[in-house]
Amino acid sequence: MSTMINILNVRMLCTVVLLLSLTGCGSGAIYFSPTNDGLAFKSGRIAVISGEIDSLGTNYTKIVTSKLKEKTNFTVLSQEEISKKVSNYPFKIKYNYQEKSIPAASFSNQDIKMIKKIQSKLNVDYLFVVWGMNLRHELISDRYGYTHYYSMGVLGDMIQYPSGEVVAFTDFSYTRKSKLWEVLSFKKSNYYVNSLIEKAADEHVDKFVKVTASGKAK
Predict the structure, then answer these.
(1) 172-206: per-residue pLDDT in tens?
(2) Which residues contact 87 (CB under 8 A, 6 or more apart)?
(3) CA 178, CA 182: separation in Å to the nearest integer?
(4) Does the pLDDT at position 6 exceed 70?
(5) Helix, strand, coil tally for the chain in percent (to 5)
């Protein structure tokens, strides 16, 4: 597992800049990137694990799971399957920032043990630990009255087995700008948050498909 920690320490969190990025993420977004160039991904069993226990994190994980099942040729475990096999799932898996100027992360020893326990129950080829977090809302006045900006951050580490090494990672923020008709229709907060999750997950999974060359034949 030491390899996992070393790889994680080279990452930088994509900064949320609401007004510079009206939709999607600004420059530096890493939707899904292998840790080594030329790394080949094999189709197999995969489980997406939420590193958060709140509704934002768990809902994001559910949507990513659903889209992976829909768009890839991986055998994707549902969140219900994971909950049946792993007692008390989901767990809070900490993402530890170690430097002030360059946010870097690593799993704690306790979380490494937890991840090993999860894998022992699921026996998959890949564990994709995902953090959907830091929901933000800005209300900006404009000539039409006002515009909503909802944003969230997404981090992720895909661990390959049996090696236990992190082979790909995710690090981006996503912003969803309200449309005029939505404002005039007095859409509620849940509407925007659900739409934000859906659109962020689409970008995330589309990049996953491209990098892993795992798209289903059309």
Answers:
(1) 999 999 888 788 788 899 999 999 999 999 999 99
(2) none
(3) 6
(4) no
(5) 35, 30, 40
Q: Kindly calculate the radius of gyration of the chain based on its CA atoms and give it in whole angstroms.
A: 18
HSE-CB of 176 using CA atoms within 13 angstroms: 24
**What homologous superfamily is domain 2-212 in, according to CATH?**
ABC-type transport auxiliary lipoprotein component (3.40.50.10610)
78 phi and psi, to 5 degrees? -75, 160
Contacting residues for 63 by C-beta, under 8 A, at least 6 apart: 197, 198, 201
Model confidence pLDDT, tens digit, residues 51-98: 999 999 999 999 999 999 999 999 999 999 999 999 999 999 987 654
- Angle separating helix axes 189-212 and 55-71, nearest 10 degrees: 40
Query: Distance between CA 67 and CA 76 in Å, rounded?
Result: 10
Which is it for strands 165-177 and 30-34: parallel, antiparallel or unpaired?
Answer: antiparallel
- The more confident residue out of 1 and 43 is 43
